[in-house]
Amino acid sequence: AQKITQTQPGMFVQEKEAVTLDCTYDTSDPSYGLFWYKQPSSGEMIFLIYQGSYDQQNATEGRYSLNFQKARKSANLVISASQLGDSAMYFCAMREGGGGGTSYGKLTFGQGTILTVHP
Amino acid sequence: GAGVSQSPSNKVTEKGKDVELRCDPISGHTALYWYRQSLGQGLEFLIYFQGNSAPDKSGLPSDRFSAERTGGSVSTLTIQRTQQEDSAVYLCASSSGQGRQYGYTFGSGTRLTVV
Description:
Chain A is built from no helices and 12 strands. With 119 residues, chain A is mainly β. In chain B, a hairpin with a 2-residue loop joins strand 5 and strand 6 (53-56). Chain B is built from no helices and 11 strands.
């Protein structure tokens, strides 16, 4: 079974609009961390936002927020006020055993969503 | 160094040849990870080092793939008898273990093409 599922191969959004990128995950470990990365065409991996499984509040980082629904095992990324520079591939990833504070261990990635922002 | 450095940035090799990919992590980062990314795909975990030992090498796809890390620093990923399906971008990341949410810094990758 897939541990991280991103069901949207591609998404389009108008500049200045908000967009939600979906991510569902599967784990039996009560302690885990969820990450979102941006990968522009240059290929670099840019960290965007993190949510720990024990965090009580949804994570926010500037224009990025994470809609964490633990019971549904979903961790959707919301980008507000989209900009042309947001056009990129977006990956959701999970580290099992890392939600309690440790930060070692492999990340398991989803297949990604290509976001295109139209002017 | 300031970031994770990978070399070469591009490598074209003939099928059947051996290749070595190098990763120089951020100084002081004890954890090092190798991933593979095929065109338009997600990142596939290969191996994780903690210091010089590899507690998780579950992602290595075959015995043609091996990796080592010396001095708790530089790591080399070796692919023997390369096949066309090995063509991908190989990404390295390192982690200090401090600051759970900022744990991973990725290099720019090595694009391997097997012809």
